[in-house]
Design goal:
about 35% helix; Rossmann fold; nine-stranded mixed beta sheet; alpha/beta; about 625 residues; 16 helices; three-stranded mixed beta sheet
């Protein structure tokens, strides 16, 4: 019996693979992955006028009311197909393209979609707008006509034959083919109960990708969630709110003579337990839509403190009243005054502590290196007297005298002690993501704590003015900035104890933290001012700060810091930082530490490079 079941399952698997492969309209041998072209497509999109804060990401499959052939109906495929779409915050392209039998054409289709998205705007009519965008793009760049025609002719050979379609669908198919060949030539569109076969050369209407949170779904009825999929591609799933049905308030009809016993009703969920479902990610990928409710379930007595602030008696110690800071809204292109509340705090439970013994050897090595900077001597040029002749000043003087323009200038060089007129502030990301493990023994927060300690040891050796702060956030009403060492405080065991008492939590509202750090640095009298940011990811929070909004606000805060005369620089361990940090900090305004364990040693070295005269 068991043998027959195994044979049946094997035959079923073979049949499923066969029928699915035969029913698929794609060409797997010519498949091109978006991950292989994501970086150049982003550059191409921005080069042709696309918004800089919009990133290129994978689009999830969309349900389309298509007329499927018999083979596709038997296989149960082609109900959902990935299509490209773009709005003010997103550029979503299919995670892979295999619509053409040639790899070269699929790559060219990716480029065309990026170009069309850069030309697009708000969509009111799918067919008319795509025609207009295509027409404008070809008129602006005539060299694209040949490539476009090649894509169109190759695609038309793969589309359904209008002669085999019902009358209304055939009329719509002919109109679409005409619109592809001659963009702008079709103004009247026949109606049809079924949607036409997807047009991979056109953009589709944008999906609503709001971010309903577990704690508060907000006022929208629909949104999206990011399906956890491990190493798989990050695809957003549509999410809708469903009303919680507890069975209360209804009318119960029964016959009293059938009631033989009385028992107390207890809510019991027999489908859930305290164990983690290892297949949750796979199941989420298979779902087309995720339903969320406001139901609160107690599970194993656990408390998710990262979603709510802890009680005041165990929370960090506030310093004074909160500070009101502005925030940049890229949609309005303006600063919203007093929009964010920032609270300065001290780590609770911190006590004076010495440098950990494991860091002592590296700290001694760094201190010796940085002590040389204190003793550096430099040649001062164009001095009235000195030990050496300044040849450049003498040549300038000789040339000016030949032309009758003899200006008074010093002709000597003198060696003098170098005085470092420099102040720096290090801002460390303390969000919940820093609680992630790097290996079996270390977390990201451990590396950040070691980096802060060694940074303080190095700068105290050279004598530069510096301050140390950490930050996290929980929406705009609670941006938390940990004061580890201010400019007026000494670096001693008190500071070391505060650093070692740090704990990760909450989210990453970078813009507010950078603005407060800019204000603190601007009050320093030093001529050169350096603002360092250490982080493990991009800006995010529970509200609108997720996505482009946070990136744009952080970029604006960095620009404000530069206008204030500061040098902002970001050090990150996020391997995907190249997708967003060049836009926020500039091509030369950040560095990526590929091995996070090297951050404690690399951070002082980077400071040394950035502050060399």
């Amino acid at each position: 019996m068991a043998f027959s079941v195994e044979v049946e399952e094997w035959v079923g698997g073979v049949w499923h693979r066969f029928i699915t492969r035969r029913a698929s309209p794609d060409f797997p041998e010519a498949c091109v992955e978006l991950s292989e072209m994501q970086r150049p497509l982003a550059v191409l999109f921005r080069a042709l006028g696309g918004a800089s804060g919009v990133g290129v990401e994978a689009a999830s499959a969309r349900e389309l009311m298509l007329r499927r052939n018999l083979l596709q109906q038997v296989a149960g495929t082609c109900k959902q197909l990935p299509v490209a779409w773009c709005d003010a915050n997103n550029l979503r392209l299919p995670s892979s393209l295999a619509v053409y039998p040639e790899t070269r054409l699929n790559q060219e289709l990716y480029r065309w979609l990026a170009l069309l998205a850069a030309q697009s705007g708000s969509m009111r009519h799918w067919a008319r707008d795509n025609q207009r965008w295509t027409q404008d793009l070809l008129e602006r760049y005539p060299a694209l006509r040949t490539r476009y025609q090649r894509l169109v002719e190759a695609h038309l050979r793969l589309r359904p034959d209008p002669a085999q379609l019902p009358k209304d669908e055939a009329a719509l198919e002919r109109a679409l083919c005409q619109a592809l060949r001659e963009p702008g030539s079709v103004t009247h569109w026949p109606r049809s109960e079924h949607a036409p076969w997807p047009l991979p050369l056109w953009l589709y209407p944008a999906e609503n990708l709001g971010e309903p949170q577990a704690a508060d779904l907000g006022d929208e009825d629909e949104g999206s969630l990011l399906a956890p999929s491990g190493d798989q591609k990050k695809l957003r799933k549509r999410a809708t709110r469903v009303e919680e049905n507890t069975g209360k308030g209804g009318l119960l009809l029964f016959r009293l003579e059938n009631l033989f016993s009385w028992s107390e009703h207890v809510d019991l969920d027999r489908c859930g337990d305290d164990s983690e479902d290892m297949d949750a990610g796979r199941v989420a990928e298979d779902l087309d839509e995720l339903a969320l409710s406001r139901q609160r379930m107690r599970k194993g007595g656990g408390l998710k403190l990262h979603l709510d602030l802890p009680p005041a008696d165990v929370d960090d110690i506030p310093l004074g009243e909160g500070l009101k800071l502005p925030e940049w809204d890229y949609r309005k292109q303006s600063l919203q005054k007093d929009y964010v509340n920032l609270q300065m705090m001290l780590p609770r439970g911190s006590e004076p502590a010495p440098l950990p013994a494991k860091l002592a050897p590296l700290a001694r090595r760094l201190r010796r290196q940085f002590e040389h900077l204190r003793n550096d001597r430099q040649w001062l040029r164009q001095q009235p007297q000195g030990a050496e002749l300044d040849m450049q000043a003498w040549l300038d003087f000789h040339v000016e005298r030949q032309h009758g323009q003899c200006a008074e200038r010093g002709l000597f060089m003198e060696m003098r002690q170098n005085r470092r007129d420099l102040a720096s502030l290090l801002l460390a990301d303390l969000s919940m993501s820093t609680d992630a493990h790097l290996d079996n023994e270390h977390k990201v927060i451990d590396v950040i704590i070691d980096s802060l300690l060694l940074f303080g040891e190095s700068l105290s050796a050279v004598g530069d003015q510096f301050a140390l702060y950490g930050f996290s956030s929980l929406r705009r009403q609670q941006v938390r900035m940990q004061e580890l060492k201010s400019f007026k405080q000494r670096y001693d065991d008190t500071t070391r104890g505060r650093i070692q008492a740090l704990r990760p939590g909450y989210y990453t509202r970078m813009g507010a933290a950078i603005r407060q750090a800019t204000q603190l640095l601007s009050e320093c009298k030093q001529r050169r001012k350096l603002l360092l940011l250490v982080t493990d990811g991009k800006p995010n929070d529970l509200d609108l700060y997720e996505g482009r909004y946070g990136v744009e606000d952080t970029r604006q805060a960095v620009l404000e810091a530069r206008r204030a005369g500061l040098l902002p620089f970001c050090i990150t361990i996020d391997q995907e930082a190249g997708d967003y940090l060049p836009y926020m900090f500039g091509a030369n305004g950040f560095t990526l530490i590929k091995e996070p364990q090297q951050l404690p040693f690399r951070l002082p070295q980077l400071y040394k490079q950035l502050t060399q005269p």
